[in-house]
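Mods, move this if it's the wrong board.
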Amino acid sequence: MAGPKKQAYGKFLSTPEDIKMKKILYVEDDLSLIDGLRYTLERNGFVVDIARTVKEAYPLFHAKQYDLLLLDVTLPDGTGFDVCREARRTSAVPIIFLTAADEEISIVKGLDMGGDDYIVKPFKLGEVLSRINALLRRSKQFRQEEAVLESNGIKINLPERTAWKGEEALDLTLVEYKLLCLFLKNPNRILSRELILDRLWDGNGSYVDDNTLSVYIRRLRKKIEDNPDIPVKLLTERGLGYKWLER
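Not the wrong board. Structure tokens:
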């Protein structure tokens, strides 16, 4: 029986799984940004499809399976929010927004509708690449874990990346899901905002505006608490951070 083929310098050839390239749908209408970012991503092993309008993005998204969406907020025929809303109807694919408006309302809107991260223009190409890789690592980590977490009527199936409140399936984004996992793995322990941000962004929490965590906490409470305005599971410890109170 023949063994695996080798290259001339003696290393085994990669298997198809080893060489599978990550696919990104990049929705952007600025040609100068498209050229620079696509070049950087492709040099780092990504396959990049470009859509310059919302109309172009929809058929691409539905025709292919992407590992990540990179969405400019302002587009000629709509916004990146429109593309995000369409994607979230059927998919939990990681989504990063690119926005020139570093206004709180724009950022909060993107996160509230299901975005996992955002980057404010102008940005450094290296930062975009780092944030993409971090988000993809988190996504892969969740697919590989094998366990079930249960607390306060909340159940998380880690291999399937599903979460339930009683009999109701929870529709969580990747960051919401990771945040919930972090709390269920550390019940009755106060987690500082800094620690949470670093865990969510793999040690790159310093990139992230502090308001971002407040947005995620509020959004998660709406999904897991009976009364989000009077939380009994996910508590705020003023000046310290947050705590999952296991009852």
